[in-house]
């Protein structure tokens, strides 16, 4: 059996998979995203560590002795600075964090040619700009840290005592050459950013260490289990859903929402609106539209309105499409695709006496769906036009919410069979890792054949949501949504 662990933004997911790819059990445990200052988004890695023990123990139960290997996936872009043993020197700075706006100027000053290897738009919340902020904001921490790691790489360091990363997470840091799969050392030196705290880049399927005795006790597993490098959550989710062919497209609705499109070469977006990241398999990349505020905005509104998840959805879907003139802009943490702008704020616009709590709830769902549709349009502007999308993520489970997403996107949505496609992808990488009997720390650029029984053979679940024909009220709300963005942005 194989254990996949996905260190998400809102919760850690654990998934136990048998050798034939069947999911035996799934569990999750939540933790908070904290905003100690306006525009900041941080989590305490100790919360991740504690959640790991709870979720893993729930899925493993009596199967502990049968687990053969562990794979990791996790939220992208953020950074944990820690000592050599993995003790964090401060809270993790997450992808939703907007503090590094001014640090992007250091990048821009290098000029377009120097930035080309990054293959990505310059965005706040990515490790590179966040570390530049740390250099001036917390110089002592900047100086003292041994490692600067992405969240799942930090977790692996704590589990194995070994520091490593792999191409999919490295490509989301604004510190890597995405096509070459190496750190962009020349660019980092030009930024005067430390490079000695970056870990080696190994293949996603490489065994990057083995479980230490104390970590094994923490998780309730045998010591010395192999732990593979794993992949970024969006890369692992593609693998977990069996989407490994160029043109495959998936929408994941979690804390953020992402639309991912598999490609077989590192093709740049001519408009510079979407991201390009390395996939979990060698010689594969994917284009990604990233919307900052999905489950994050729904959770904030749910708490504000004092509703359970069931009540939020029940009440929202008593209201007619278009919410009687109410539009919600969900930009609680700015927006990435298509605006690449950390400044817009959230808003409900068009409030009247006739509006109720149920209207506020539905308008938020519609606003998140419209934001996702704008991301899809940015992906289409690169020349792609997927006629169907796979649907994954813990924020995609309610049938009427799925229907609203299909209606707004005007595409059929195939929901995938596992609750956490990313954790499934991580378990599949664990299986690949030990099937190959690989050396610890093997460089990822070596030719790697995919053994039989690989992820490409996993059939996605057949459940499909077909879009309704366009509703005039929903279309009007969508158009108003698009027009209102300039009203909520500001000049920094
Ligand atoms: N019915 C629901 N139950 C739990 N979470 C939900 C539900 N509907 C939407 N969500 C949102 O989905 C997110 C959880 O999805 P998940 O894929 O686990 O996220 P992540 O990987 O970012 O931790 C949360 O942000 C939560 O607000
Ligand atoms: O920002 C991106 C991709 O660019 C996400 O992949 C983050 O990693 C967050 O994922 P969730 O926690 O929302 O699933």
Overall description:
This protein has 16 helices and 22 strands. The strands form seven sheets. Strands 16-17-15-14-20-21-22 form a seven-stranded mixed β-sheet. Strands 3-2-1-5-13 form a five-stranded mixed β-sheet, with helices on both faces. It is 33% helix and 18% strand. Residues 436-461 have low confidence and may be disordered. By secondary structure, it is an alpha+beta fold. The termini are far apart. The protein has two domains: 2-236, ATPase, nucleotide binding domain (Nucleotidyltransferase, domain 5, 2-Layer Sandwich); 242-415 and 462-492, ATPase, nucleotide binding domain (Nucleotidyltransferase, domain 5). Helix 14 links the parallel strand 20 and strand 21. Bound molecules: adenosine-5'-diphosphate and 5-O-phosphono-D-xylulose. Adenosine-5'-diphosphate binds next to helix 11.
Strand order of the largest sheet: 16-17-15-14-20-21-22
The averaged pLDDT comes out at: 93
Radius of gyration, in angstroms, nearest whole number: 21 Å
Provide the CATH superfamily of the largest domain. ATPase, nucleotide binding domain
The CATH topology of the largest domain turns out to be Nucleotidyltransferase, domain 5
Number of helices: 16
Beta-strand portion reads 15-25%
Bound molecules: adenosine-5'-diphosphate, 5-O-phosphono-D-xylulose
Give the total of beta strands.
Answer: 22
User: Biggest sheet, in brief?
Assistant: 7 strands, mixed
Helix content: 25-40%
Overall number of structural domains = 2
Under the CATH scheme, the architecture of the largest domain is 2-Layer Sandwich
Distance between the termini: 52 Å
CATH top level label of the largest domain: Alpha Beta
The geometry reads as globular
Low-confidence stretches: 436-461
């Amino acid at each position: 059996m194989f254990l996949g662990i996905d260190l998400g933004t809102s919760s850690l997911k654990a998934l136990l998979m048998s050798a034939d790819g069947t999911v035996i059990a799934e569990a999750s445990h939540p933790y908070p995203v904290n905003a100690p200052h306006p525009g900041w988004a941080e989590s305490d890695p100790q919360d991740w560590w504690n959640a790991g023990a709870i979720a893993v123990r729930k899925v493993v139960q009596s199967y502990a002795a049968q687990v053969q290997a562990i794979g990791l996936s996790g939220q992208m872009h953020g950074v944990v600075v820690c000592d050599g043993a993995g003790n964090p020197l401060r809270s993790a700075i997450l992808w939703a964090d907007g503090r590094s706006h001014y640090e992007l100027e250091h990048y821009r000053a290098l000029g377009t040619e120097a930035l080309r290897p990054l293959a990505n738009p310059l965005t706040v919340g990515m490790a590179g700009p966040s570390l530049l902020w740390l250099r001036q904001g917390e110089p002592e921490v900047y100086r003292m840290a041994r490692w600067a790691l992405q969240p799942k790489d930090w977790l692996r360091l704590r589990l194995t005592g070994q520091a490593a990363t792999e191409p999919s997470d490295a490509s989301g840091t604004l510190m890597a050459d995405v096509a070459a799969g190496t750190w962009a050392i020349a660019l980092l030196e030009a930024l005067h950013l430390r490079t000695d705290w970056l870990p080696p880049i190994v293949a996603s399927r490489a065994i990057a260490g083995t479980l230490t005795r104390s970590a094994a006790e923490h998780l309730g597993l045998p010591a010395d289990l192999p732990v593979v490098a794993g992949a970024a959550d969006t890369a692992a989710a593609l693998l977990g859903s069996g989407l490994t062919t160029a043109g495959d497209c998936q929408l994941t609705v979690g804390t953020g929402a992402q639309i991912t499109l598999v490609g077989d070469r590192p093709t740049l977006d001519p408009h510079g609106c979407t991201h390009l990241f390395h996939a979990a398999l060698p010689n594969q990349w994917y284009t990604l539209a990233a919307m900052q505020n999905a489950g994050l905005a729904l959770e904030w509104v749910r708490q504000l309105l004092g509703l359970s998840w069931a009540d939020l959805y029940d009440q929202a879907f008593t209201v007619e499409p278009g919410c009687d003139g109410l539009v919600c802009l969900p930009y609680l943490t700015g927006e990435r695709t298509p605006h690449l702008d950390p400044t817009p704020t959230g808003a409900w616009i068009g409030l009247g006496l006739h509006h109720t709590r149920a209207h506020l709830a539905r308008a938020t769902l519609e606003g998140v769906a419209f934001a996702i549709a704008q991301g899809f349009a940015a992906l289409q502007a690169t020349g792609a036009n997927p006629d169907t999308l796979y649907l994954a993520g813990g924020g995609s489970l309610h049938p009427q919410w799925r229907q609203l997403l299909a209606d707004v996107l005007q595409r059929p949505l195939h929901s995938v069979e596992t609750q956490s496609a990313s954790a499934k992808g991580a378990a599949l990488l664990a299986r690949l890792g030990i099937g190959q009997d690989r050396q610890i720390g093997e460089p990822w650029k070596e030719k790697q054949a995919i053994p039989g029984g690989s992820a490409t053979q996993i059939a996605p679940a057949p459940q499909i949501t077909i879009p309704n024909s366009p509703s005039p009220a929903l279309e009007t709300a969508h158009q108003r949504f698009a027009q209102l963005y300039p009203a909520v942005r500001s000049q920094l």
